[in-house]
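Before the break, one more example. Copy the sequence into your notebook; we will annotate it together after we see the structure.
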Amino acid sequence: MKQSPEMQRIQETMTFGSLAAHGFLGHDTRNLTDIIRDDTLAVERLGLTHSAIADRMEYFTELASKRLGESVEIDGIYRVVCEEHKGKLPCPFADNVRVAKSMTTVINAENHLSMRWSALNVHMIRAHGFYEGLGARFRVDPKLTAKALGLKTS
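Here is what the structure looks like once it is written out:
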């Protein structure tokens, strides 16, 4: 799909070293517009929305952040740890949003799936439908997320 000049500019800021040492695109060769479109289609196939996924991620982060750095049991199934570091990260979509540097790790004891995400991941999913590119260090796969976090899918 053709990409707008604005999306091209945003994609260029997402490469290694621009806003984050790890980059947001991984080894993905698709343009940013296609990455977002493909993940949106995957989310829709699951019968979910970006907001529903972000809400569930935020649910775990908020509960675990009350005991920063400690493992917390949530809903009798999940072991969750939230770690926060000094500073804030800017959203690469140039929307003037800066979020805390935090990482949440969740382990689902029923299906043994685990995943982790940053506060920036939650914002980018909710506001931009962006889960990061394939192979990106902090890529959040919609299907894995739904399974690991117990979201009901179609």
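The radius of gyration is 15 Å. The chain has one domain: 5-148. Try to locate both features in your own notes.
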